[in-house]
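Hi support team,

I submitted a single chain yesterday and got back a structure, but I'm not sure I'm reading the token output correctly. Could someone confirm the output below corresponds to the sequence I sent? I've pasted both exactly as they appear in my results page.

Thanks,
R.
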Amino acid sequence: MRWMVAAAAALVMAAGALGGARQQAAPARAQEAAYVVTEGNLFLPGTITVAAGTAVVWVNQEPDPANSHNVFSYQRLFESPDFYPGESWSMLFDTPGTYTYYCAYHEGMEGTVIVQ
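Hi R., thanks for writing in. Yes, this is the structure output for that exact sequence:
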């Protein structure tokens, strides 16, 4: 029960974000979750297509414990804090559209979320 209250609080706090994407620390009550991993300073997969209402979770799987990543929207709709190997960050996408993003630390590390 306590986790449900925490999840609901996360959704309420996330509702203030811009556009059709809501920032959150972990996927709360999304319809589904889709995963993007960071490996070799790449987002894998580079393009992911999800249904509206899906939380996309970025998971840092780099072997170097100092290799952090972040996720910044080119459209300036969201930005994550740094997340280190073994950590993750998620975003709930509830409006159809194409969302492009990049890691501020690694040139060429880019990805796209297509929401249908």
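A quick pointer for reading it: Residues 2-115 form a domain with the Immunoglobulin-like fold (CATH 2.60.40.420). Let us know if anything else looks off.

Best,
Support desk
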